[in-house]
Amino acid sequence: MGNKAVLGITILTVAVLFGVEPGAAQKRYDAGASDTEIVIGQVMPYSGPASSWGTIGKAQAAYFKMLNEKGGINGRKIKLISLDDAYSPGKAVEHTRRLVEQDEVLAIFGAFGTASNLAIQQYLNAKKVPQIFLSSGADKWSDYRRFPWTIGWIPTYKAEAAIYARYILNNIADPKVAVLYQNDDYGKDFLRGFEEVLGADFDKVVVAKASYQITDPTIDSQVVMLKASGANILFTAALPKFAAQTIRKVAEIGWKPVHFLNSTAASIAGTLRPAGVENSIGIISAAYSKDPTDPRWKDDAGVAEFKAFMRQYYADGDAADLSNVYGFSVAQTFEQVLRQCGDDLTRENLMRQAAHLKIVSLPMLLPGIDIITGPTDYEPVEKMQLMRFDGTNWNLFGEVIGSSAAELR
Fold first, then answer.
1. Shortest CA distance to 106 belongs to which of 14, 184, 39?
2. CA distance 266 to 286
3. How many helices and strands in the chain, by DSSP H and E?
4. Which whole number is the average pLDDT over 190-202?
5. CA distances from 140 to 97, 134, 281, 362, 376 (A)
6. 185-198 and 114-127 are packed helices; what angle lies between their axes, rounded to 10 degrees?
7. Neighbour-count burial of 306, counting CB atoms closer than 10 A to its CB (0-12 exposed, 13-18 middle, 19+ buried)
């Protein structure tokens, strides 16, 4: 795309709220907003064990740069202050306090990681600072009663795991499941999804569990132990680094389980290539986004828009990395919230608009997957589709499945 080319933005279908056009409201500002600027903060793991996900923040910064070049939001430029917390809750707290108390941001947007977001949730809610579209699928982000200033974006980890558990029960005879999970709230939420579906049969079906710490150099011993259990199914709930190690070790020891992999680690670029695509054949995961490498989307307008964005605004990023697809889509959702705010850029109105979304499509969401929120619905994306890796691409199969907790009970 040439420098003078205009990147098309998919028009979002949005409910008109309260019968008032956004621009008709009187100008109202909280800290971080003015006639010319909207300042938002973020913590992101640009270093440390989850650094492969730092590309999310870079993609979002690139998206806001693009918006600013096109005039910003309602005439205001977006300033994103994104700080490296190295996937450390302590650093997340330190940086978040700085962002709120010194930089005076309007909101904390897209902060990464379950542990980091848990560490800052109480503080932000006490300060009444939006913790909006955070990068984690923990079940806790939909608790609008206790934490009205916190809202997630992706399907919950527990609901995703429940999708796998239901598939296993319906399609695999005599299932014996081994689970490898990160030993914190991130990993344990996936385990809870299996517990919710299996109920009293959990201990019969799940024959082995092993956890790892993010400081562990490898998970080889855990994989060997899980194979020894006699399991014919492996579910891995891990960061990309450890997911790749697991896939390699499973192949190395000649284990042939039906392998399920959590969606946040399902990137071909970030996990499967480092693990060896030949070792990844047959792995099952779930998706809500289009894979830019999938031939089925070669003529898709949304994928073309995303690739054009990456070429022009984030050329150093990998367009095949689903983390960049995610960052792009979340930034688009936040753009819509800001547009709905109009000239009422208060923290209270920001959360109100985040809880009044009806986006029937985004360029990189799968067909049939929308973004709908409400005052009692803090789960923007609630649908997924199963997919299987063939050595080159993820192949979608089955129907789009509702992944909200209510639908899976």
1. 39
2. 8
3. 14, 17
4. 94
5. 21, 11, 33, 25, 14
6. 100
7. buried
Q: Is the Cβ–Cβ distance between 73 and 340 less than 8 Å?
A: no
Q: ∠ CA 194-195-200 to the nearest 5 degrees?
A: 125
Residues 164/286, Cβ–Cβ less than 8 Å? yes
Kindly give the interhelix angle for 301-313 and 322-341, rounded to the nearest 10 degrees.
Answer: 90
Q: Which residues contact 120 (CB under 8 A, 6 or more apart)?
A: 43, 92, 93, 96, 108, 111, 131
**CA distance linking residue 149 with residue 387, whole number of Å:** 34
**Eight-state DSSP code of residue 16:** P
Contact 78, 296 (CB under 8 A): no
- pLDDT bracket for residue 403 (50, 70, 90): low
Phi then psi for residue 20, to 5 deg, are -125, 130
d(C-alpha 356, C-alpha 350), whole Å: 10
| Closest alpha carbon to 56 in 40, 66, 43 | 43
DSSP run (H or E) holding 83: strand 77-84
Class of the CATH-defined domain 22-154+294-378: alpha beta
Write out pLDDT tens, residues 370-382. Answer: 999 999 999 999 9
Write b or e for each residue in 120-147: b if 16 or more Cβ atoms lie within 10 A of its Cβ, otherwise e: bbeebbebebbbbbbbbbbbbbbebeeb
The domain 157-287+386-408 belongs to what CATH superfamily? Response regulator (3.40.50.2300)
Tokens (6 digits) for 23: 């621009």
Helix spans in 128-213 (H): 157-171, 185-198, 202-205
- Same topology, domains 22-154+294-378 and 157-287+386-408? Answer is yes
Domain boundaries, the chain: 22-154+294-378, 157-287+386-408
Longest distance between any two alpha carbons in the chain, whole Å: 66
Place of tokens 């990189």: 364
Q: How far apart are CA 235 and CA 246, in angstroms?
A: 10
Output the pTM of the full model: 0.84
- Supply the pLDDT for residue 26: 84
For 327, what's the count of Cα atoms within 13 Å in the CB-facing half-sphere?
28
Select from 396, 370, 402 the least CA-distant residue to 384: 402
